[in-house]
Specification:
Elements (H helix, E strand, L loop, with lengths): L2 E3 L20 E3 L4 E3 L19 E3 L9 H10 L15 H4 L12
Antiparallel strand pairs: 1-4, 2-3
């Protein structure tokens, strides 16, 4: 099983989850993080660290967010691994409560 980063991370990218990951399965894109499903060990450490509640077990992905399982797998192959908290977008707090942000995903 794997954990999945969903819509809520887009344009927020707080990165609190990154430092608790024991296997470095997070990858950083221009405005979102994703989890490599082949590396994730289902440890659950990242899920409670996310301030926007963007991380879910693949069995608990909210309705309408299922495409993020495939997106995480696809984008984790293209984006670099991230192991430390980096610079959070200046407008992250403004985007934190916005819903349905898929159209804002930068690849």
């Amino acid at each position: 099983m794997t954990f999945v980063v969903t819509d809520s991370c887009i344009r927020c990218k707080y990165m609190d989850c990154v430092e608790v990951c024991p296997v470095d399965c997070f990858h950083e894109g221009p405005n979102m993080l994703v989890i490599d499903p082949d590396e994730c060990i289902d440890c659950t450490l990242c899920e409670p660290e996310c301030p926007v509640e963007a991380i879910f077990s693949e069995d608990e992905i909210p309705a309408g967010q299922e495409q993020f399982l495939e997106l995480n797998a696809e984008l984790s192959k293209k984006w670099p691994v991230i192991t430390e908290i980096g610079k959070v977008p200046e407008d992250a707090d403004e985007w934190a409560k916005v819903k349905d942000k898929l159209q804002h995903l930068e690849r």
